[in-house]
C-alpha cells in the first residue's frame, strides 16, 4: 500500500504576505507540516505542490520533494484543494507511481504531529473508512447561536432552544483544516475530499489554531509554546 503526503503551498497570500514560509517560532511554518509527515514514517513520498520557486527551495531544504511546479490554472484564487491533489496524483501516475492513500496536509498547520498522522492512518485503515480528518468540538452549543439584525439588535437563530439547558443539546464539531487522509481512488472518482464513509480524530482546543490574521498567528505561537512546555 503506497502512500503520499501532499502539502499544497502556493505563493499568493493576501491577508498574511508569504504566509506559507513566514517564520513561526524560528523556522518557516511549512517546515512543521513537512517534518511531521517525514517523522511519521507513513509515506513513500512527501511532496510540496507549489507555483513558487522560493517555497520549493525551502521545502526541499526541509526534506520534501518538489518534482514539478504547480500549473498556472491551479495556482489562482479559485483553484480548489481537490484540483491541486488531482493534478499531483495524475502527474505521478504518468511516471508510473500510483498511491493507494493520500494525505493532504496544509502548510500552515504547525500543530500536526507524527502521532496524530499515525493515529489517523490506523483509524482509516482498520475502520475501513474512505477518509479521516481532525475535528474540534464547539465550546458552546451551536443550537444557541445568535445573529445580529440590521437594526443592531440581537436574536437567536433557533429561538426554540432558548429554554433548553446547554448540557441537553447535542455536541457539534468543526473541521480543523489541518489535513485530510483518504483513499486516493475515492477522492479522484468522487471529486470530493470526504464522503459519508468518513471518520475523525478529535483534538483538544490547545492542539489547534486557525491562522488567518496576524493576531491569529501570534496566538498560535503562544498556544504552541504553551503546548510544548506542558508536554
Automatic annotation (TrEMBL):
The family database entries (Pfam families) matched by this protein are listed as: CTP_transf_3
The record ties this protein, via CDD domains, to:
CMP-NeuAc_Synthase
Q: Which UniProt keywords apply?
A: Nucleotidyltransferase, Transferase
Instruction: Indicate the transmembrane segments per the record.
Output: none
Named from the GO MF annotations, one term is: N-acylneuraminate cytidylyltransferase activity
**Keyword Metal-binding assigned:** no
InterPro entries referenced in this protein's UniProt entry, alphabetically: CMP-NeuNAc_synthase, Cytidylyl_trans, Nucleotide-diphossugar_trans, PseF
Protein name, per record: N-acylneuraminate cytidylyltransferase
Amino acid at each position: 500500500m503506497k502512500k503520499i503526503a501532499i502539502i499544497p503551498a502556493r505563493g499568493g497570500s493576501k491577508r498574511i504576505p508569504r504566509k506559507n514560509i513566514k517564520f513561526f517560532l524560528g523556522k518557516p511554518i511549512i517546515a512543521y507540516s513537512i517534518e511531521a509527515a517525514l517523522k511519521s514514517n507513513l509515506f513513500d513520498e512527501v511532496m510540496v505542490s507549489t507555483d513558487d520557486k522560493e517555497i520549493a527551495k525551502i521545502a526541499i531544504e526541509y526534506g520534501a520533494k518538489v518534482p514539478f511546479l504547480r500549473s498556472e490554472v491551479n495556482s489562482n484564487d479559485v483553484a480548489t484543494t481537490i484540483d491541486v491533489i488531482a493534478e499531483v496524483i495524475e502527474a505521478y501516475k504518468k511516471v508510473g507511481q500510483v498511491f493507494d492513500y493520500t494525505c493532504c496536509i496544509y502548510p500552515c498547520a504547525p500543530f500536526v504531529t507524527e502521532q496524530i498522522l499515525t493515529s489517523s492512518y490506523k483509524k482509516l485503515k482498520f475502520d475501513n473508512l474512505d477518509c479521516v480528518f481532525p475535528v474540534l468540538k464547539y465550546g458552546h452549543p451551536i443550537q444557541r447561536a445568535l445573529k445580529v439584525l440590521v437594526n443592531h439588535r440581537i436574536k437567536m437563530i433557533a429561538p426554540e432552544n432558548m429554554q433548553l439547558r446547554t448540557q441537553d443539546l447535542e455536541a457539534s464539531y468543526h473541521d480543523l483544516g489541518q489535513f485530510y487522509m483518504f483513499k486516493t481512488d475515492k477522492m479522484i472518482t468522487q471529486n470530493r475530499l470526504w464522503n459519508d464513509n468518513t471518520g475523525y480524530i478529535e483534538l483538544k482546543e490547545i492542539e489547534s489554531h486557525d491562522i488567518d490574521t496576524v493576531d491569529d498567528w501570534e496566538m498560535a505561537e503562544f498556544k504552541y509554546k504553551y503546548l510544548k512546555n506542558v508536554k
